[in-house]
Amino acid sequence: MEIVSEPDINSPAEAKTYLKKLQQIIRYLGVSDCDMEKGSMRCEANISLALPNSKKLPDYKIEIKNLNSFKFVENALDYEIKRQKKLLETGKKLTQETWGWDEVKQITFLQRVKETAADYRYFPEPDIPPIRWSDKEIKRIKNLLPELSDNKMKRLVKSYGVSDSQAAILAATREKADYFEEAVKVGKKHGLKAIKIANVIINQRVELKKYLPVALVKLLIKKKTDLITDEKQLSDLVKQVIIANPNAVADYKKGKRAALEFLIGQIQRLAKGKADPKIIREILRKNLK
User: Fold this and answer.
1) What is residue 55's predicted lDDT score, i.e. its pLDDT?
2) Is the whole model's pTM more than 0.85, yes or no?
3) Which residues, listed in sequence order, are joined to residue 91 by a DSSP beta bridge?
4) Which of 240, 248, 201 is nearest to 220 (CA)?
5) CA gap 218, 213 in Å, rounded
């Protein structure tokens, strides 16, 4: 299946973000594993530049073929922007061409001059007849689609009280979100709060295939009575983590909430998962002011 986007992506970073989201949606739908290393997802990036103050859209585009990682896409587009800009500024006219990406040399290279549509000699596929769907059939198919990540994130925040950053991590894959919700369902019978389960899954990087949700809940119940609540002991751990992770501290002060969860995870690692999450969160916030 080939997906062609509208030409409304304005930077290599935006292209990378778009592709990651596309991969996530396809995985959520169960259409493909989208493993770029195995070749089940490929990207062909098209790029053209217009000079400043130009009132016309570019009349050419360069296609970079068979990019098999998000990083390659970003790097190749970064390089092409510089290469094309340099040529355009010297007055050179660019044409339709196909280029490749050399990851070792970190440069693009010419493969061939791109043909026009007429040169491709398109013809209908004889083994695939036209498919026409009624509005009723389209509605039925839409109702069969699973909840996708963006909607799932909103629901996790609303239903379980997790933060936006926590919801993004939990809903990163359909498997992780399902695991979390099943663990919450089991934990509710034992008085375990959803936020506690979320913190454990995120901060301790629970191996989903190793522990079933029921087994995780049993483990948490057992650990519940062993929590470290001594504020002096926890303050010492917090200070150690702050000193050891200056980049995460700087990110938090810039407003990146995910950095706080990372620091909490590092504290829990030192405490072997036994630090009272509510207390360390409060101590950490005080120390980061």
Assistant:
1) 79
2) no
3) none
4) 201
5) 9
Contacts of 275 (CB under 8 A, 6+ apart): 227, 228, 234, 237, 267, 268
DSSP tag of 116? P
At residue 68, the pLDDT reads 92
Q: Are strands 62-67 and 97-102 parallel, antiparallel or unpaired?
A: parallel
Distances from the Cα of 91 to the Cα of 51, 86, 94, 238, 278, angstroms = 10, 9, 9, 59, 63
Angle between helices 174-188 and 213-224 (to 10 degrees): 50
Instruction: Give percent of the chain above pLDDT 90.
Output: 61
With a pLDDT cut of 70, the percent of the chain lying above it is: 96
The DSSP symbol for 114 reads: P
Question: Tokens 């026009």, residue?
Answer: 116
Contact 15, 9 (CB under 8 A): yes
How remote is the C-alpha of 208 from its chain's centroid?
A: 19
114/97 Cα distance (integer angstroms): 4
Q: Which two tokens stand for residue 126?
A: 């004889």
The Cα–Cα gap between 139 and 145 comes to: 10
Residue 149 pLDDT > 80: yes
Separation of alpha carbons 164 and 176, rounded Å? 16
> Is the model more confident about 49 or about 122?
49
Per-residue pLDDT tens digits for 192-216: 999 989 999 998 888 888 889 999 9
List 108's β-bridge partners, or say none: 101
Domains and CATH numbers, the chain: 12-138 (no CATH), 149-224 (no CATH), 231-287 (1.10.10.410)
Structure tokens given for 191: 């008085």
Closest by CA position to 76, among listed 34, 46, 40, 111: 46
